[in-house]
Design a protein that fits this description.
With 585 residues, the protein is α+β, with helices and mostly antiparallel strands. Helix content is 36%, strand content 26%. The protein has 16 helices and 25 strands. It has a 6-stranded antiparallel beta sheet with strand order 3-2-1-6-5-4, sandwiched between helices. Strands 7-8-20-17-13-14 form a 6-stranded antiparallel beta sheet. The chain is elongated and about 110 Å long. Keywords: Hydrolase. This is SpoIIE family protein phosphatase.
Length: 585
């Protein structure tokens, strides 16, 4: 800012310097200011950018920006003027003032001298005269075709406002309007994001047998809201619902839809609907809000006392199951289409599993998996590596490791650098079944899989989960044997009965001396019997293979149906049996 006591010398210096300043220099300076304004997201940043123009050709004395409401012009911010000690400055739009003339006419007002100011605006010119400025310009700030504000710029010297100066001021006003639009949008998004994150909460909560840890990380790049969310809802009879979802898009509209979906899910859960009905109703509700957007979601109804989970999935990534010893596997859930995609044909089958003591179920949105350009498979490996280490009891530490694996610094050439958060936002839920003295001792690892008659893909998913259960088994050939025998038993149920097949696989014992027990149950009445199939027979080999390859097997009649089971003992490489096999070879 200029000192008015040094006016004449400065003016003399300006007179001699002005002719030597080429127009190109002013254009280059203006381009730099334009770049700064293009990145500005607040009124202070706007003033700082324009203030850098202060020069003999642009003798800036002060600036103010007025916001427009229905009846008032309110001061949004000022530069080069006294602060007024926090007073709110506003004037009625009926006031005889250059700013209100801008509102009435939609055109800029230029006042080159104090005399002209006094003649044109006799009732308010003294407000400007007190400052000591000598020329003024008032320009409309236009957004979406309407005036949303007025920019006042005052000069310490006389300015003629020729065509070049007017063009410069008009360009600056346009850039300021865009910057203020970004600031308003950013503030709205920031407020919404903070409210949403506050309402979702953070940290661990205990529910008399289960503990939940949660995290939400917004996206970067100036967008701090998105469509990801999670919820933990208290239900009657000491049950709880866990919800995680992702609305398509990363804009304010996606965040608005997400907030409404959260409310809808709360309402349907409070009405007592099961997981399938909650998702069906929410899908139809989303369609009524916006036919062009869809959302993915998992809804779980949990009973902390028994560890039973009833789960429904709508196009969302499958959860991950972590066992007490750190073994992690993708828990495949039968599911339906994303919410809002085809609401008239919604079908969300309910999956039932029992979470064992010390086991952790991880639910997340795809931002945790795919951020950094990873596909689902490599992203899953990153998740597994972050979940496996550490004690089961440190649920908060596990949540932090998972988030840090995505948003933490990366090391390149021995140096750490921060990673940008300009991709998807992340929602994360961890659900742990707590241990206690009253809990029975469970196997170290256990998985339960149900395959319906119309779910052929369930066979492949069962093989994948069984291999994950045996990821560190001593001999890979025994893993292949276990997968083969389980596939035969499951296939027998699906081919020879009209019942669903239920597989329970459990690992017990110390590493190197463990035992795998696999049970396959169905509700059919007919007991299996061993046959002697020919070389080209396409069936009948299941029990024969059991007899040859398993250590033990049997058939157990149940009150409804039957269970066929087998056991395999771990034989690590280098053990006595493997040496004997080598000698026999």
């Amino acid at each position: 800012m200029h000192d008015h006591d040094d006016g004449p010398p400065a003016e003399a210096e300006r007179d001699t310097a002005a002719p030597a300043a080429p127009p190109r220099h002013r254009d280059v300076t203006l381009i730099g200011v334009g770049v700064a304004l293009a990145e500005a997201t607040s009124v202070d940043e706007v003033f700082k950018a324009v203030g850098s123009l202060d020069s003999p050709e642009f003798p800036l004395d002060g600036m103010a920006i007025f916001d427009v409401t229905e009846k008032w012009l309110s001061l949004l911010g000022r530069y080069g003027y006294r602060t007024g000690h926090g007073r709110t400055v506003r004037m009625p739009i009926s006031t005889d003032h250059p700013s209100t003339e801008v509102l009435r006419t939609g055109r800029a007002v230029y006042v080159p001298t104090v005399e002209e100011y006094r003649e044109r605006f006799p009732t308010t010119w003294m407000l400007a005269a007190r400052k000591g400025s000598l020329s003024w310009a008032f320009l409309p700030l236009v957004s979406t075709g309407r005036i949303t504000g007025v920019w006042l710029v005052a000069f310490v010297d006389h300015v003629e406002f020729d065509s070049g100066m007017r063009a410069t001021l008009a360009t600056l006003a346009e850039l300021i309007s865009r910057a203020l639009d970004r600031a308003r949008t950013g503030e709205a998004e920031l407020a919404l994001s903070r409210a949403l994150r506050s309402s979702m909460g953070r940290g661990a909560s205990e529910y008399h047998g289960m503990t939940v840890a949660s995290r939400y990380v917004p996206t970067g790049g100036g967008l701090v809201v998105g469509g990801d969310w999670y919820d933990v809802i208290d239900l009657p009879s000491d049950r709880l619902a866990l919800v995680i979802g992702d609305v398509q898009g990363h804009d304010l509209h996606a965040a608005s839809l997400m907030a409404q979906l959260r409310t809808a899910v709360h309402a349907y859960a409070a009405e007592g609907h099961g997981p399938d009905a909650v998702l069906s109703r929410t899908s139809r509700f989303l369609t009524s809000l916006d036919e062009d957007r869809f959302a993915t979601c998992i809804y779980i109804e949990a009973d902390p006392a028994s560890g039973t989970l009833h789960m429904a999935r709508a196009g969302h990534p499958d959860p991950v199951l972590r066992m007490p010893d750190g073994t992690c596997m993708i828990k495949h859930l039968r599911g339906g289409l994303p919410l809002g995609l085809m609401p008239e044909e919604d079908d969300y089958p309910v999956n039932v599993m029992e979470l064992q003591a010390g086991e952790i179920l991880m639910l997340c949105t795809d931002g945790l998996i795919e951020t950094g350009g990873l596909d689902m498979q490599t992203g899953w490996i990153r998740v597994r590596d972050a979940m496996s280490p550490g004690p089961t009891g440190d649920l908060e530490g596990m949540a932090d490791r998972l988030i840090h694996s995505v948003v933490g610094p990366v090391t390149e050439h021995g140096e750490e650098r921060p990673t940008p958060r300009n991709e998807d936002d992340i929602a994360l839920l961890l659900l742990r079944r707590d241990t206690g003295a009253q809990q029975p001792v469970r196997p170290v690892r256990r998985v339960l899989i149900t395959i319906e008659q119309d779910q052929a893909e369930g066979l492949a998913e069962a093989r994948t989960e069984l291999r994950a259960l045996l990821h560190d088994w001593g001999r890979p050939d025994l893993v292949d044997t276990a997968v083969l025998l389980a596939s035969e038993l499951l296939g027998n149920v699906l081919v020879h009965t009209d019942q669903a097949a239920v597989l329970i696989a459990a690992v017990s014992g110390e590493p190197g001396h463990r035992t795998l027990r696999v049970e396959v149950s169905d509700s059919g009445d007919e007991l299996p019997h061993q046959r002697t199939p020919g070389e080209l027979a396409s069936s009948g080999r299941g029990l024969v293979l059991l007899d040859i390859l398993s250590d033990q097997w049997s058939v157990r009649p149940e009150s409804e149906g039957k269970t066929v089971w087998f056991e395999l003992a771990e034989e690590p490489d280098g053990g006595p049996d493997s040496d004997a096999d080598a000698d026999a070879g």
